[in-house]
Structures are given as structure tokens and as C-alpha cells.
Automatic annotation (TrEMBL):
<dbReference type="InterPro" id="IPR001633">
    <property type="entry name" value="EAL_dom"/>
</dbReference>
<dbReference type="InterPro" id="IPR000160">
    <property type="entry name" value="GGDEF_dom"/>
</dbReference>
<keyword id="KW-0805">Transcription regulation</keyword>
<dbReference type="Pfam" id="PF08447">
    <property type="entry name" value="PAS_3"/>
</dbReference>
<feature type="domain" description="EAL">
    <location>
        <begin position="448"/>
        <end position="702"/>
    </location>
</feature>
<dbReference type="InterPro" id="IPR001610">
    <property type="entry name" value="PAC"/>
</dbReference>
<dbReference type="InterPro" id="IPR029787">
    <property type="entry name" value="Nucleotide_cyclase"/>
</dbReference>
<dbReference type="InterPro" id="IPR001789">
    <property type="entry name" value="Sig_transdc_resp-reg_receiver"/>
</dbReference>
<feature type="modified residue" description="4-aspartylphosphate">
    <location>
        <position position="58"/>
    </location>
</feature>
<dbReference type="InterPro" id="IPR035919">
    <property type="entry name" value="EAL_sf"/>
</dbReference>
<dbReference type="Pfam" id="PF00990">
    <property type="entry name" value="GGDEF"/>
</dbReference>
<protein>
    <submittedName>
        <fullName>EAL domain-containing protein</fullName>
    </submittedName>
</protein>
<dbReference type="InterPro" id="IPR043128">
    <property type="entry name" value="Rev_trsase/Diguanyl_cyclase"/>
</dbReference>
<dbReference type="InterPro" id="IPR000700">
    <property type="entry name" value="PAS-assoc_C"/>
</dbReference>
<dbReference type="InterPro" id="IPR035965">
    <property type="entry name" value="PAS-like_dom_sf"/>
</dbReference>
<dbReference type="GO" id="GO:0003677">
    <property type="term" value="F:DNA binding"/>
</dbReference>
<feature type="domain" description="GGDEF">
    <location>
        <begin position="293"/>
        <end position="439"/>
    </location>
</feature>
């Protein structure tokens, strides 16, 4: 006896007291718990109190008979087995018993041994049915949660049986869905119907399949489904039925698309990102390798974009990038007709690979000239003015090119080569230009890398020194100032001038560190000279554009002067015109602060940049340094020093001091002196000299400085 049988509760309903008593005794002897009732009404009441697992129900009873009692139990949803006890053996009575919901019937007179076995069988059958129903409910619930429906297809009749969950995936029920294969096919997205039909044909031939396709719901939504189907064969191996499941995977597909979007596309512009571009390029290179072709990689930079970012702010700069991305991506974005990015990663496309850099590759490149012409056309179209927040921005692009297989045979090497070409343009300060990679760039890059490492070591090991070049007043024949210039004492290369390392320090972000060192060293030298009784003169110190733009500039200079007890009148700051004009509003504030400290400001290389009278008035510059390129015209020969005369006249009208740079000949000195610029700096008087030599020149005088001294002196 099973556990369910040992604990089973039985209800015997019979109006015959003897039959009821014998039945209860026989069943209790068999180990069952038994309750009894004398008629149908009492049986219904007792059922609600006792909750039996099985009912033995007499058919002929006063009041409501067994048929009606059974019918009412079933109407209440009672699913326990009901065994009819009846002396009626005609077929009509038997059919009526089953129609009323009876599970089984036992004819009278009752065989008590057989009764016990029939009860056990009914209990076991009920337990099996309950288990099956529970499994079906659990399966249905699981399928509903997982959005899975099941189906069966009888090939001989073309009849489909579809579960309720299956129909619900289409937003319908079984009645509205229709019958046969055609009902499914008409609900498959037109773009996927051919694939679905081919898969159904294959399963009829005995091949199982797994397939993703789009379905059309009754509410108009398009969902993505995953279907699996297996064929069932008869004894002869002939496929007679197909069973399958259909799962709505729209959420998973959407999540995968979002993950792919994040992994392969730029959020700001919607263009492919560097990872996507690299994979696409690598696929293109494999194709070109197979057919012996060529491929060009184009790296595109938005000229002076940092300036746009600093001036308009990041939000506006991002919108500018979006506009430029649309222009650059037109015809190169690799999208399908419905605007969706294709699944293939090797489709030709424009990409945004970092902040203001875009990239494009050209498969089957026919030659450098053709590629450059195509790129130039693209950049010209994309470079028209951008209107943003009431302002008109003129934008341009620079591009670096590299070609497969000449400049590299992998995506990474080609991208690196194109980056080197673009970097060469940046270092030359060129804009709106196209540069192709050369092998010399790789040599230069290795040299620069080596120099970067050496420069960091130079800073750590204090390998920089200051030299001073005197400023001479030719009228008085004496030193009236000096310029502090930095030199690098390389352990193996010797003395290296600033032209070789200053631009690299700016790229490395270390120019501010070196600039502060120069100011500190110059103040230290001034302090020592004064302590030694040497007559001191103002020393000019160069400020880079990066230093000039730092918010802590004033505090840093003040702290340095205080630390060495050097007066502000002993330091002159030199900046270039371009540094002043980067942000005119900020420049005005900085200059106001510098003048507040008592410092003077000189504009270096004047005449080579903006050379605006308006900015000189606005910024209250103290001194102009005439660039050496104009000084060369003052040689007393056929050259007309008109620009020099104009600069001198302008400086006089504004009450500014003047210094002529790069004076190398007596003729130049005499012309400058004659036109009213007596203060000069150049090889004619002295080359940059060590601190010791400059200190000696301050104490004893500079030989030859008095050769042009006026008689009045």
C-alpha cells in the first residue's frame, strides 16, 4: 500500500444501512479512514466536513439520487474519484453515471475483496492524474514566465495544435488564430517568411531546426521569436508529426542590441567607435590580402577643436561634433536603408575613434592621389560653417593617411601610421592639410620617445641650467637687462638648446614644471648676485601659453618672489602674441593681476602674429620685442626697415619700451639706434652666457657694449 493509500479518507454514501455498514467495515479493515452518509444531501454536507480522497456513492437513494449528487459535486469543482455502487447494469445507466462525472462503477451485490482493490486502483489513478495536472500547470506557468508556447503539427491532416501560451505570444487566442500552417505563415514578418518555410520543409524531411525570426502581433507590434522543432517518425521512418516550441526573445534581442550599441558605437554621434572600426578594418585587410589589393586608412582631426570646447563649453562642443559627424558620415556610415546599422562588422564606415578624431578606410584604394582627392572633397563638404548658439564657427579638418600594405599590414599598425602622419601636421602647426605617412616619421617617433624618457630623467636629475643673454642700451653702452634661457646638459649629447625639447615638454604637459623651475632659478641667481654686491638688472623670464593660462599663476609668482626676497621690478615676464590672444577676457584679468604685483610684461616676437594696436592698448603691455626677422631688414642695404620704423613709432605713441632681438651686425645696430630703438639683444653684443660669466659682465661691464655709445654719454 502506498503512502497515499494508507492516509486516504473515504466517504461512503448509501441509504441501505447494511450495505453502508459492510462497506465501511471492509474499507477500515483495509486500512482506510472512512466516514458515512445515509443520503445524497447528507453526503454533500459530509463531504464539506470530511474532505475525502474518494467517494463511494449509491445510485438509488431517496431525495436526490447518486447521479444528481455526483453532478453537484462536479459542479462545485470537486475532482476526487467517485465510484458508483449500483444494481443497474443497463448501458443507459452506465452512460448516465459517467455523464454525471463518475470515475468508475461497481455493480451490486458487492464483492468486498474486489472493492478494496478497485478503491486502491482509483486512488492511484487519481494520484497520477493529479501529478500530471500539476506538471501541466507548472509547465504552463513556466512557459508563460519564459514566454514560450508549444505546438504540434500533424503532417497527414495539416492540423496544428497550439498551446494557449503560443497563441498569446501573437496577442491572440486559439479561436482567433486559425488552423493549419497558413495561419502561422501569414503572421511571420514578410522579410523572414522564406527562411521559415525552408526550415519547415527541412523538418518534414527529418531535420530538426532552431531559428530566429520576426512575428507580427495582432496589436501591430513586431517581436522576435526563437523556434525549435523536432520531427517524429513512425515505425517506417516516415515523419508523421512535428513538435516545436516558440519563445518571444524580443527583450533579449533588444538587450543584445543595446550591449552591441554600447560596445561598438559612439554614444554622442552614433558612429562606429574605435573597437568597431578596428574590427571592420581588419576584415577589409583580409579581403585585400586575398585579392592582392590595397587599402587606405584616413585619420581625420577637427582643427583647433580644443578652442571651441574652451570657448563655448562642452555641451555646445558636443553639438558641434554631432553636426560634423553627420557631415563626415554621409555616405560612409554603413547603415542600411531602414537606418539600422548592419550586422556585418566589415562594412565600409566612418567612425569616431576618440574626442575629436574620426577615421575612414577605403577598400580597393587605387592610389595616393585618388585617395587624397576623395578625402579633400569629403573634408571640403564637411568643413562649411557651423551655426551654433547664434555664432558662426568656421571649422576645418586635417587628415593623416596610411596605405596597406606599404605602411602596415594590420589594423593597429595602419592606425598608428595614420596617427603619426596626423601628429606630424600638429607639430608643424598646420591646419586644413593632408599628410601621408613616411618611414622617417617612425624614426622621428622613436627618437621622440627616447627623448621623452630622457627629459623626465633630466627633470628628476636636475640636468637643466640657465644661461643669460644681456640686453644692451647702445646709447649708454651698458647692460640694462638680461633674458634667462634654459639649456639641457645631456649626459651624452652635451648641451641641447630649447628648440629641440620645449615643444616636446609642452606635449608631455611638463612645460609648466620647467617654467616654474626657470623662474625659481632666476630669482635665486638675482638674490645671490645682490648678496655678493653685484649690480643687478631686471631679468626676463619666458612664460609658455600653458603657464599663462594657469589659475595659480599669480600665487606661484608671488610665492617665488617672496621666497627669494626679490622685488617684482627685477622680473620681466615675456609672452608671445598668440598666448595673449587665446582668451582675451582671461588675459585682461591675468595682466591686471601681474601689474598689481608690480611685474612688467613684454610681448615676445612682436610683429609675427596679431600685431594689433587695439590689444596693446587694452592689455597695457610694457615692452615690445621686435622679432629678429624684421631686424634682419635693418642692414643698411637694399632692404627697407619700414616695419621696424612702424613698430618703433607705435611703441613710442603708447609709451612702451622696445627691445630689438637677434641683432648680429653693426649695420643693424646703427639703423635701430638711428630710428629710436637703442636697447638691443643679439650675438653682436654677446651670446647667451653662463651665470658666472653674466655675473662678471654685470660687475665689470660687457666688452664692446660701449661701441655705439652716444657722445653725450
Amino acid at each position: 500500500m502506498t503512502e497515499i493509500e494508507r492516509s486516504a479518507r473515504l466517504l461512503v454514501v448509501d441509504d441501505d444501512d447494511v450495505t453502508r455498514m459492510l462497506a465501511c467495515a471492509a474499507l477500515e479493515e483495509a486500512g482506510f479512514q472512512v466516514a458515512e452518509a445515509a443520503d445524497g444531501e447528507a453526503g454533500l454536507t459530509r463531504f464539506g466536513e470530511f474532505h475525502p480522497d474518494l467517494i463511494l456513492l449509491d445510485v438509488l437513494m431517496p431525495g436526490i439520487d447518486g447521479f444528481e449528487t455526483c453532478r453537484r459535486l462536479r459542479q462545485q469543482g470537486v475532482r476526487v474519484p467517485v465510484i458508483m455502487l449500483t444494481g443497474l447494469e443497463d448501458s443507459a445507466s452506465i452512460e448516465l453515471a459517467y455523464d454525471s462525472g463518475a470515475t468508475d462503477f461497481i455493480p451490486k451485490p458487492i464483492n468486498w475483496t474486489l472493492l478494496r482493490h478497485r478503491v486502491r486502483y482509483a486512488l492511484r489513478a487519481a494520484e497520477a492524474v493529479d501529478g500530471l495536472l500539476r506538471s501541466e500547470r507548472n509547465l504552463s506557468a513556466a512557459q508563460e514566465i519564459a514566454r514560450i508556447g508549444s505546438w504540434e503539427w500533424d503532417l497527414s491532416t495539416d492540423r496544428f495544435h497550439r498551446s494557449d501560451n503560443y497563441c498569446a505570444l501573437f496577442g491572440e487566442d486559439a479561436a482567433s488564430f486559425g488552423k493549419g500552417l497558413s495561419a502561422l505563415i501569414e503572421r511571420v514578418h514578410p522579410g523572414d517568411r522564406e527562411r521559415v518555410c525552408k526550415s519547415l520543409d527541412s523538418v518534414c524531411d527529418g531535420q530538426r531546426y532552431a531559428l530566429e525570426y520576426r512575428i507580427l502581433r495582432a496589436d501591430g507590434q513586431v517581436c522576435t521569436a526563437h523556434e525549435m522543432a523536432v520531427p517524429l517518425s513512425d515505425a517506417n521512418g516516415r515523419v508523421v508529426q512535428v513538435q516545436g516550441t516558440l519563445q518571444d526573445i524580443s527583450d533579449r534581442v533588444a538587450a543584445e542590441q543595446r550591449i552591441r550599441q554600447l560596445a561598438y558605437f559612439d554614444d554622442l554621434t552614433g558612429l562606429p567607435n574605435r573597437v568597431h572600426f578596428r574590427e571592420a578594418l581588419q576584415s577589409a585587410l583580409l579581403r585585400e590580402q586575398a585579392r592582392g589589393g590595397h587599402c587606405a586608412v584616413v585619420l581625420i582631426n577637427v582643427d583647433r577643436f580644443k578652442r571651441i570646447n574652451e570657448t563655448l563649453g562642452q555641451d555646445a562642443a558636443d553639438r558641434v561634433l554631432q553636426v560634423l559627424a553627420l557631415r563626415l558620415g554621409a555616405g560612409h556610415a554603413g547603415t542600411t536603408e531602414d537606418g539600422v546599422a548592419p550586422d556585418r562588422l566589415d562594412a565600409p564606415r566612418m567612425a569616431r575613434i576618440n574626442a575629436d578624431n574620426f577615421a575612414l578606410f577605403v577598400e580597393g584604394a587605387s592610389g595616393r592621389a585618388a585617395v587624397e582627392a576623395e578625402v579633400q572633397s569629403l573634408l571640403s563638404r564637411a568643413g562649411s560653417a557651423v551655426h551654433m548658439d547664434g555664432q558662426t564657427l568656421n571649422v576645418s579638418f586635417s587628415a593623416g593617411l596610411a596605405f596597406y600594405p606599404k605602411h602596415g599590414d594590420t589594423a593597429d599598425t595602419l592606425l598608428k601610421s595614420a596617427e603619426m602622419a596626423l601628429g606630424a601636421l600638429r607639430r608643424l602647426g598646420e591646419h586644413d592639410a593632408i599628410q601621408c605617412y613616411t618611414e622617417q616619421m617612425k624614426v622621428d617617433a622613436m627618437s621622440r620617445l627616447s627623448m621623452e624618457s630622457a627629459l623626465r630623467e633630466a627633470i628628476d636629475k636636475d640636468q637643466f641650467v640657465l644661461v643669460y643673454q644681456p640686453k644692451v642700451d647702445a646709447d649708454r653702452g651698458r647692460i640694462v637687462g638680461g633674458e634667462a634661457l634654459v639649456r639641457w646638459h645631456h649626459p651624452t649629447e652635451g648641451v641641447i638648446g630649447p628648440v629641440a625639447f620645449i615643444p616636446l615638454l609642452e606635449e608631455m604637459g611638463l612645460i609648466g614644471h620647467l617654467g616654474q623651475w626657470v623662474l625659481n632659478q632666476a630669482c635665486d641667481d638675482l638674490s645671490r648676485w645682490r648678496a655678493a654686491g653685484v649690480p643687478v638688472v631686471p631679468i626676463a623670464v619666458n612664460l609658455s601659453a600653458i603657464q599663462f593660462g594657469r589659475q595659480d599663476l599669480l600665487d606661484s609668482i608671488r610665492d617665488t618672489l617672496d621666497a627669494h626676497e626679490v622685488g617684482a621690478d627685477m622680473i620681466e615676464l615675456e609672452v608671445t602674441e598668440s598666448a595673449l590672444m587665446r582668451d582675451t577676457h582671461a588675459t585682461a584679468e591675468v595682466l591686471h593681476g601681474l601689474h598689481g604685483l608690480g611685474l612688467s610684461l613684454a610681448v615676445d616676437d612682436f610683429g609675427t602674429g596679431y600685431s594689433s594696436l587695439a590689444y596693446l592698448k587694452r592689455f597695457a603691455v610694457d615692452t615690445l620685442k621686435i622679432d629678429r626677422s624684421f631686424v634682419q631688414d635693418c642692414d643698411g642695404g637694399n632692404h627697407d626697415p619700414a616695419i621696424v620704423r612702424a613698430i618703433i613709432a607705435m611703441a613710442r605713441s603708447l609709451g612702451m619700451g622696445l627691445v630689438a632681438e637677434g641683432v648680429e651686425t653693426e649695420a643693424q645696430a646703427r639703423v635701430l639706434q638711428a630710428h629710436g630703438c637703442p636697447v638691443m639683444q643679439g650675438y653682436l653684443f654677446a651670446r647667451p652666457m653662463s651665470e658666472v660669466d653674466f655675473r662678471t659682465a654685470l660687475r665689470d661691464g660687457l666688452p664692446g657694449a660701449d661701441r655705439f655709445r652716444r657722445a653725450a654719454e
